[in-house]
Amino acid sequence: MRTTPWSLVATMALTVLGSAVVGGSATASAENGISTFDAAPDVVAEAILLAQLTLVALAALAITGEYSSGSITSTLHSVPIRGRMLAGKALVVGAVIGGAGLLLSAVGTATAAPLMGELGAFTAGEAVAAALGTAGYVTALAMIALGLGTVLRGAAGTITSLVLLLIPMPQLMKLSDMEWLDRAADLLPSVAGSVLMTNDADPYGLQAASAILLVWSLTALVAGYVALRSRDA
Q1: Residue among 229, 228, 199 nearest 45 (CA)
Q2: Euclidean distance between CA atoms 9 and 58, whole angstroms
Q3: Distance (Å, rounded) from C-alpha 90 to C-alpha 88?
């Protein structure tokens, strides 16, 4: 896709800018007597939660772009086994987005760490864990976007749905006075992604976060496969 390089550049720029802002804010807070103890790689997770939107759009366009251009017909002629076609796209999109996640975490950490100084001190193990967690999270988002895009077939509907799912929905559910909604919010992808990127134990650990993202990914891909099988294109 011709949009891929530009989307990745935009994501990198947002991550660098967000990491600089968050890192600088942590330093300013400490100077004002507000202690912050987050390691630089964990702080970068906040920036990536914004930059993730461009990766979601890129993953969605990998399939919706074919529907809008009509090239999905030739794709299915070339690979008539629809499950194989979707699996192939998932592998390619997952590799690109997952690799981008590794790079974003590394670049974001390199941006935030100098601004935070000792406040953001971290070990090599923490940096590697954050990078792997980021890669895992954005790969899961890519699978969700690919599956949903296959179902909806339109970029606007797919991207809008995912933006709502990732940003306002968790916040609105947390604001509710109903305990079951608050607990349900913890099962949304962005909450699990935050745990995965920061190795936080609240509201659950890494294993639970990984399982939640796996369920979201598989559910979206299965829904996409069913949609592919049930219609002409």
Answers
A1: 199
A2: 12
A3: 5
Q: Which amino acid is at 228?
A: L
Q: How many CB atoms lie within 10 A of CB 229?
A: 10
User: What's the one-letter identity of residue 217?
Assistant: S
DSSP string, 69-87: HTTHHHHHHHS--HHHHHH
Cis-peptide into 203, omega within 30 deg: yes
Q: 172: which residues sit within 8 A by CB, 6+ positions away?
A: none
Q: Which tokens go with 117?
A: 């100084």
CA distance 14 to 27: 20
What is the C-alpha to C-alpha distance for residues 127 and 96, in angstroms, rounded to an integer? 20
Q: Do residues 15 and 51 touch, judged by C-beta distance below 8 A?
A: yes
Token pair for residue 152? 């909806």
pLDDT in tens, 26-65: 777 766 766 665 788 888 898 998 889 999 999 999 999 9
Structure tokens at 137: 């999270």
The one-letter amino acid code at 3 reads T
Amino acid at 94: G
pLDDT digits (tens, 9 = 90+) for 112-159: 999 888 888 899 999 999 999 999 999 999 999 999 999 999 999 999
Rg (CA), the chain: 19
Q: How far apart are CA 2 and CA 82, in angstroms?
A: 24
Q: What's the predicted TM-score (pTM) here?
A: 0.92
